[in-house]
Amino acid sequence: MASCKAGRKRASRQKAADDVVQVAPICKLPANIMLQVFRFLDVKTLCVLSTVCRMWYHLVCDRCLWKHVDLRPWSLSLRTLKKLVRNRLSDSALELLIKGFIGTTKKSVNVSPSLLEEIKTKCPHLRSLGLSHCDMRNVPAHCLPRSLKSLYLGHSIVPLAWFEGLLSEVFLPNLKELILIYCTRVENSDLACIAKLTTLRSLNLSYCYRVGDDGIRHIAQSLVSLTALDVSHCPVITDLGLHYIGRHLLRLKLLNLFSNWGITDAGVISLVHGLVELEFLNLSYCKELTKLGLFEITEKCKKLKVLDITGCVALSERDITKARMSSPSCTIQQL
């Protein structure tokens, strides 16, 4: 009896709220205009709006609002993520970005095999997945959606041999971009596995300080279609690694070697000999670079648009001026 009365009271309050909302000026707008307004709102705000009235609930559930879902402003629990994926996402979802608890005081894990299975089921056409600051130690790599074209694992704990399954099965057949910024446990043996992803066009290994010349050899010999490579802050890479890049990655357009102290003129000369398509090159704080390497770059890389040599202390103003005159179409940055 009491439950029936409570139910009638809730229904009455909901009807009253609906009546109030229906006469609000914004509700007189056509549904397509309302959806355009809702596109500018974040996920949390959309979820709040869905509780306002029935009309707004149905508008918030529209698939066009859930194509690109960015959850990074909030570190959500595993339970909340599962509920959101189950209730909100659909086969229209193309991008999903999640942030974990690495670097916070919480010890919880918000990525699991069951969550990835739920994502694969609900989002069969997902193209981009971001798992930043996540603990991947209990999540096998083969659980990732096969439809992915871009995978971001920045600042996450990616354990040793996590990519080992690629040696037996290429479970990411369409992947074109892999970002492993600050995945400090990634080493040369992992790159031997990543080299099986022959569809890759962009690879970011920034701050993966265990990566050395042997790892560069693996990816250079196998990923010949790479157009962008970031190995900044990888201090173990030497001139030998640059030799592998210059010999095999002939389609490179972007190369970031920021703060790789082991690089000298010999490596740079070997590097640019075959990179005729290069458009962006960052050699900032490569302190062994002299005018010999600089002039070789401007002579060989005719398509180069940006060259960053900030912090290259062995270069004089006269050397830089001469390089700018010999390659007027290239912007040589020296901050």
From TrEMBL:
Q: Which residues form the F-box domain?
A: 23-69
Question: Record's Gene Ontology CC terms?
Answer: cytoplasm
Which domain of life, per UniProt? Eukaryota
Q: Which UniProt keywords apply?
A: Ubl conjugation pathway
Q: Where are the annotated coiled coils located?
A: none
Q: Which InterPro entries match?
A: F-box-like_dom_sf, F-box_dom, F-box_LRR-repeat, FBXL15_LRR, Leu-rich_rpt, Leu-rich_rpt_Cys-con_subtyp, LRR_dom_sf
SMART domains recorded: FBOX, LRR_CC
Protein name as annotated: F-box/LRR-repeat protein 12
What organism is recorded for this protein? Acropora cervicornis (Staghorn coral)
